[in-house]
Amino acid sequence: MSKISAAITAVGKYVPEYVLTNQILETLVDTNDEWITSRTGIKERRILKEKGKGTSFLAIEAAKDLINKSNLNPKEIELVIVATATRDMQASATAVYVASQIGATNAFAYDIDAACSSFLYAVSTAASFIEAGKYKKILVIGADMNSSMIDYTDRATCIIFGDGAGAVLFEPNEEGLGLQDEYLRSDGTGRDFLRVKASGSMYPVTKEAIDKRENFVFQDGKTVFKNAVFNMADVSEKMLERNNLTKEDINWLAAHQANKRIIEATANRINLDSSKVMMNIQKYGNTTSATLPLLLADYEQQLKKGDKIIFAAFGGGFTWGSIYLKWAYNS
Ligand code: UT7
C-alpha cells in the first residue's frame, strides 16, 4: 500500500464588506498613505462592523464558501480546527460553535492559538491525523477578528491589522501530494513584544486595565520586525535545504502577510523571483491566522496540481515555522 499523505482538496474564504482605507485612517490617527504603503505595503483592510458578531461569523462564512464550492457534505467532516488568536469568548472553543453552525454535526472541534503561526500549527495537527489514517476529512479554518483588540487611537498598530477568514479541507492522498515537510518553532521569551496584556488569566480585564488601554494589542514593532525577518527567512531556507530544493523547483512562496518588507526579505533569502511570491497584504492587511488560507483562496485559480509551495509564518509568542506542501488539484 502506498504511503498516505495529507492534501488540501478545497479552499474557501470570507472577508467583511467594510473597507478601512489608508485615507480613512488618516482621519483617525496621525499617519498618511505614503508612510503606511512604503513601510508595510498595506492599502486597505476589511473590518467586521456588525455588533454581536465575532470571529465565528468569519469562520462560518469561509467554511460555507468551501462547502458550496466543493459540494462537500458537512456531515462527512470528522474534525474542525479553528486557528485563531481572537476566539469568540473565553472557556468556549469557537470551533465547536462553528462546526454546529455549518452542519458538521458528526465532527469534534477545537481551537489552536499560536498567534500569526496558528494556521501552520493547525495544518501540522490536521496532517498528522490524516497521515496516521485516523480521519479522512478535516476542516482547518484560519479566522481572526483583529479589530476586536485594536486601539484605533494607536497609529503603531491600527494601520496593520484587518479581519478575515480562510478555510481548507484536508484529505488523504496516495499520489505523494500534500504536506511534505514541516519545521515549526517557538520561543516564549518573546511574548512581551506582541500581546494583549489584559485578556486572560494572568491579567484579567479590569477597569484599571481598560483605563491603561491594556485590553488592546501592544506591539514593539522594531523588535518583532527584526525577529520576523530573521526567522521566517531562516526556516524557509532550511526547508529548501532539507528537501534538496533549488529556487527553480519552487513554484510559490506563501508567506504570512504581516509586512511587505518581511515577505520580500524572506523571498530574497531563497532567491525567489517576485512572480512566485503570493501577495494580498495590500487588500487585507495582517489578518493573523487567516493570511495563509486567504492567499490560497486568492491564488487558487493559478495553482496547478504538483505545484511546490513553501509556507512561512512568524507571530506573537514568539512562534514561527515553515511548511512544504505539494498542491493536489487543478481548479
Ligand atoms: O504578524 C505578527 C508579526 N508582526 C509583524 O511582523 C510586524 C513587524 N513590524 C513591522 O511591520 C514594523 O515595525 C511596523 C510597520 C509596525 C513599523 O515600521 P517601522 O519601520 O519599524 O517603524 P518604526 O516603528 O521604527 O517607526 C518609525 C517612525 C517613528 O517616528 P520617529 O521616532 O522616527 O520620529 C514612529 O513614531 O515612524 C513613526 N510612526 C508612524 N508614522 C506615521 C509609527 N507608526 C506610524 C504611522 N504613521 N502609522
Please explain how this structure is put together:
- The chain is of the alpha/beta class and 331 residues long.
- It contains eleven helices and 13 strands.
- It is 32% helix and 25% strand.
- The strands form four sheets. It has a five-stranded mixed beta sheet, sandwiched between helices. Strands 8-13-12-11 form a four-stranded mixed beta sheet, with helices on both faces.
- Helix 4 links the parallel strand 4 and strand 5.
- The relative contact order is 0.19.
- The site of oxa(dethia)-CoA has 19 residues, from helix 2, helix 6, helix 8 and strand 12.
- The site of oxa(dethia)-CoA (UT7) has 19 residues, from helix 2, helix 6, helix 8 and strand 12.
* Broad shape: globular
Strand adjacency order, main sheet: 1-7-6-4-5
Biggest sheet, in brief? 5 strands, mixed
Low-confidence stretches: none
Distance between the termini: 28 Å
Order of helices and strands: EEHHEHEHEHEHEEEHEHEHHHEE
**Percentage beta strand:** 15-25%
How much helix is in the residues? 25-40%
How many β-strands, per DSSP? Answer: 13
Which hetero compounds are present in the coordinates? oxa(dethia)-CoA
Total helical segments: 11
Backbone structural class: alpha/beta
| Residue-averaged pLDDT | 97
Cα radius of gyration in angstroms? 19 Å
